Amino acid sequence: MDRRLMIASNQSENHEHLDVLTIAELFDPSEQYTIPIYQRNYAWGATEIEQLIQDVYDAALRNQASVSVGESPIDYFIGSLVVYLRGEGSFETIDGQQRHTTLSILLALLKNKGCIEQPLQRVEQSIQSKHKPESTDIALNLHFDSRPKSARTLTDLYNHQTSIEPEEPAIHSAYNIAARYLRKDTVDKEKIDISLFSDYLFKQVKILRVQVPQDTDLNHYFEIMNNRGEQLEKHEVLKARMMAQYIDDVDGQACFSAIWDACANMHRYVQLGFDTKVRDHIFGENWSSCPTSFEAVKAHFIDAKNTSDGMTLSNIISNKQYSTHEALEHEDFEKEERFSSVIDFPNFLLQVLSVSSGKDVALDDKRLLDTFGHTDGKLEIEPTVFIMQLLKCRMLFDKYIVKRDFDEKWSLLSLERYTNNNKKSFSYINTIGKDEDDSINNQLVMILSMFHVSYPTQVYKHWLSSALKSLLALATSNELNVSGDRYLAELELLSDRFFANATGIEQSMSVDSLLYVDKDNVEDEEGVAANQTLHTGTGVQNFIFNRLDYLLWQKLKSGYDFKSDDAQLDMNYVKERFDVFQFSFRTSVEHYFPQTNPLSKVTMKDVDRFGNLCLITPSSNSKLSNYLPENKKQYYAEKGRTESLKQAFMMSYKKWAPDEQGLNNIKSHEEMMIKVLCKQ
To answer: Using an 8 Å Cβ cutoff, are 187 and 459 in contact?
Structure first.
């Protein structure tokens, strides 16, 4: 049992109140919640917010299907909220503040979209509750102790107001993330029905409110709640289930467990997760050969066990030099985990199941056990077959999928085994070519990191599934060598497909049909229907900006002369920023000329056009949202950086404004960027 639920269960004996509330009931304006000063700041990002929205919407669709065939409605339990009663109707939030704040942000967003019908009928299902069923309005009722910026930002968002005061960037960013996500397509390519989502969220999503006793030591309680005990994770349950149901010999179970555990550590190369006594036998002297059968790997483990069991005192003495100078040295070295993976292990298991089965697999680790199992209790794939595919995919992943290195740079590296002074060791080298400036390796690093920062949420890493499928097809030998050129070509085709799916834009479309057209006239001068996907302001997907930055980087690296396209460009300015550019997690769409001119308070007519947009971090967007272009340029000059290549191009112009030469620059920049985006 979850330790938090154990605590709640134990405390129920101390007469605390447990209330099962709908989300509408949570936002009862007669009750107020306060985040105390000892709680950390709001910290949820795109991964957590998008996952919450998707989980609720999935439940809403299941409920809709159930009701349509006459079955009972399906409620969705979203978790618990632990509170302390400060006074009548006033609660202090002890645990669950991240979820509660996110729900408050969704309340503000859905209110502004006109999705909330008031009053909402409350459906009381409380345990030991003193509330009576009633009809009430819902309203924002979350506050912050000694955190005025957070409180003001949330209130402004709820009231759909813009403040000239500094905002809390994390809360403001969360609002924009949720807004964009509710506008985009789901995994199944169906647009989210916001009305269905909103209605289900407030009426049928439930939260357990746990009120601790009045004599509770809050500091001690908070410490307990945030130091959870050891629990068995779903992937560990899956491992045990596979071993128990399908592998009945001790040696087979030991082998299966060793492979699984080595693959589970996503922050170091999989070869380093194996015992030194079997590693060379499994992967070959250079650690680059992938074993082909489970029985062959098991035989190496049996040999290693027999050798170890049969060691005599003479054997131990004769092997002293090896154990002192090589094995121990390796063990210390290998404990260093210098890489940060783009995916965690439970989600990697789902990726491997997807590429192995050839089926559409939901990349949701909360449903890991159900996804791997049939309704009759049997597993989706035979364990010894799956474990070998898992090992092969991990080796390909390590070698050909980008990682974050210890110096905070993206890398694509392979293990290299070598001997120096009769001692065996290893190092990391570029996967494609040993030269640090290898062109193909660098391009692979850029396009892979482009995909990753565009889709940070685990459930949407379909690019990784496609990449693994390509690698499995391209790796024709046990050495798992893949042509860098062919791999890059596959990834660029994948980028083209993602772009076409996201925008409806094909490379054959004319640039004129993609340029900004006044909303009162949705056809261009020749009467051709215009595609306005790129001119929706904050509604433009992150992937589109990141794809553009990759294509700009590629052209700049090849020496393309953009100056010939627009004489107003300052290419020296651009090239200085190109030299240090790498992809990062930027999730806020910025209007370079602000939506509201701070000098005249007049909104730029075509402020949402693609030529006036770029992608930056939420904190920068919050800080710079009302700055004029020249002030933004000065800010970044003082910081010695820009955040994207498109932004660098925009800032290279001397004048940027919604009239005269400034407007001409916006139009020229827009046309040039769309040509690059569409590879024309």
So the answer is: yes
Residues 651, 629: Cα–Cα separation, whole Å: 8
Total H helices, total E strands in the chain? 27, 14
> ∠391-322-413 over CA atoms, to 5°?
35
- Tell me how far apart the alpha carbons of residues 513 and 517 are, in angstroms, rounded to a whole number: 9
Q: Nearest Cα to 177, choosing from 67, 102, 258? A: 102
Contact criterion met (CB below 8 Å) for 587 and 46: yes
Read off the tokens for 14: 């101390």
Sign of CA dihedral 333, 337, 341, 346: positive
Mean per-residue pLDDT, 61-87: 89
Q: Which residues contact 207 (CB under 8 A, 6 or more apart)?
A: 20, 21, 23, 26, 77, 78, 79, 80, 81, 96, 99
Q: Rounded distance, CA 585 to CA 317, Å?
A: 54
C-alpha 126/C-alpha 346 separation (Å) is 35
Amino acid (1-letter code) at residue 369:
L
- What does the radius of gyration of the chain's CA atoms come to, in whole angstroms? 28
Element (H, E) at 428: strand 423-430
**What distance in Å separates the CA atoms of residue 272 and residue 592, rounded to the nearest whole number?**
48
Is 416:426 a contact under the CB 8 Å cutoff? yes
For residue 304, which of 239, 255, 253 has the smallest C-alpha distance?
Answer: 255
| Whether the Cβ atoms of residue 138 and residue 107 lie closer than 8 Å to each other | yes
Q: What b/e string do you get for 181-210 counting C-beta neighbours within 10 Å, with b at 16 or more? A: bbeeebeeeeebbbeebbbbbbbbbbbbbb
Q: Give the total residue count for the chain.
A: 680
pLDDT for the residue 16? 54
- Identify the band that residue 665 occupies on the pLDDT scale cut at 50, 70 and 90: very high
User: Is residue 222 over pLDDT 90?
Assistant: no
Per-position b or e across 308-339, b if 16+ CB within 10 A of its CB: eeeeeeeeeeeeeeeeeeeeeebeeebeeeeb
3-state secondary structure (DSSP) of residue 597: coil
Return the number of other C-beta atoms located less than 10 Å from residue 359's C-beta. 10
Reduce the DSSP state of residue 253 to 3 states and report it.
helix
Q: How many CB atoms lie within 10 A of CB 161?
A: 9
Q: Is the whole-model pTM more than 0.85? A: no
Helix (H) or strand (E) holding 106: helix 97-112
For residue 427, pLDDT beyond 50 = yes
E strands within 353-402? none
| 148/382: higher pLDDT | 382
Confidence band for 326, pLDDT divided at 50, 70 and 90: very low
| Residue 519: pLDDT over 80 | no
Strand partners, 423: 420
Asked whether residue 167 carries a pLDDT value surpassing 60, the answer given is yes
The secondary structure of 181-216 as a DSSP string is HHHSB-TTS-B--HHHHHHHHHHHEEEEEEEPPTT-
| SS3 assignment for 471-522 | HHHHCCCCCCCCCHHHHHHHHHHHHHHHHHHHHCCCCCCCHHHHCCCCCCCC
Distance from chain centroid for Cα 604: 33
Long-range contacts of 9-17 (CB under 8 A, 24+ apart): 11/210, 11/212, 11/213, 14/213, 15/213, 16/210, 16/211, 16/212, 16/213, 17/127, 17/128, 17/129, 17/130, 17/209, 17/210, 17/211
Give the mean pLDDT of 348-373.
Answer: 89
pLDDT at residue 249, as a whole number = 84
- Lookup: tokens for 217: 């030591």
Q: Does residue 79 contact residue 208 with C-beta atoms inside 8 Å? A: yes
pLDDT-derived band at 408, boundaries 50, 70, 90: confident
